[in-house]
Amino acid sequence: MLELPKLVWAAAMKLLLLLLPILGRACCRVESNSSAAALSYVSIGDGTSTQFDFPENTQGIIVVSSRYGSAQEKDGSRLLVQSLDPDVLTIINISDAETIGLVKSYIVSIKSGMAGTAPLLVRLLDVTSVVPVTVEERTDYIIKILPNDDDLGYTSLAHFSQNPLLYFLLPLIFINKCAFGCKVEVTVLRDVLKQPHPVILGVIGQFLLMPLYGYILSKIFSLPKALSLGLIITCSTPGGGGGYLYSLLLGGDVTLAISMTLISTVVATGMMPLSSTIYTHILNVHETLHVPFTKILVTLLFIAIPISTGMLVKYKLPRVSKFLLLLIRPLSFILIIGGLFMAYQMGASILYNVHKEIILAGVAVPVFGLLIGYLLAYCVGLPVPLCKTVSIEIGVQNSLLALAVLQLSFRRIEADFASQAPFIVALSSTSEMLLLVIFHFIYKNLRPSPEENDFKS
User: For this UniProt entry, which segments traverse the membrane (predicted)?
Assistant: First the structure.
């Protein structure tokens, strides 16, 4: 009978020995979790939230608490707070609240800019030793700047589709594109397929050199992050639909211009997302950019359908084709002036607060594109008309496509602010090309023709 209690006792001891390691590990986990929680010395507010809303264009304060042990000592710790997006939120100063007790409080004065999100870098330092030691560093706090509803009425861009002038210009645009289709030469199209040097140069200039140039300009002029992104996206767009119009007026090759515009628009479906990904990472932009593939397809159709119609008219109705060719130049001038007027009217709401730096950058973009395009074509030995065409295709961007990207990717206020870049580039491009056309016509009229030189001799 005495053996039974001994056996029970031995079994209980063995079970206890088996459970001790498990209980020890559980205790260690609890202890480590509690110590990890205790290590979180810094908190904003009551510590239950990591995101805080704040109105735009406003000054205010946030209170940061520290439960670090050295906080009980006077000047034993120091708090550093940095905004990771200064365009959205600026840290003005940090002061000690001179609180009494175990919790030390700091008052951080802030000033909000445009609507957006600004992550904070919060760092607590122990300064009791000669060399300050980082006690804790947190990057999970975010200040969300909300737009003022009162500003929505007059700061946003008027949508171009609501402009009544567009309904007058659309039929003229279609007729003008049909007329350009009448100028397309099938032999030139075959030459483009056999020797695609101009097209390759156009792709290199539009999708590699121009975005890089936009990034360099944003650094030179120290543009805010939103404007920098807007400028780079504008420089990443394919050639504008007016490229072949300027090629005609400036003595370029119209067929090559149309081919380059169509091909660059197709290439943009792959290159624009790639370029956007690279530069949003470089600029540390948190929003995801949406490339409007539907708009790109509509752009392709809006070019291809009337051009194809014009080519069909040329071979089936030669008399109508001759009449359309007579309309090209006057219609082109009307469309340039109408487009310029509509662009100014569309963006009048943002002209009152446009940054002078983005004006300078916007003026420089078409100039660089024209120069680098001509230089690339000249270096590979292309004839002057082809050099002009490559230059124009690289120098004239599809700014409306850039506007669509920004409007789809950001909230209204942020999108309109970033849209200053493509808007200014569009105005600069149209104005500069109009000046070039005027100077070209003046030069042609003042320069004596070869027949006059022969007559004088």
Answer: 199-217, 229-249, 255-275, 296-317, 323-346, 358-378, 422-443
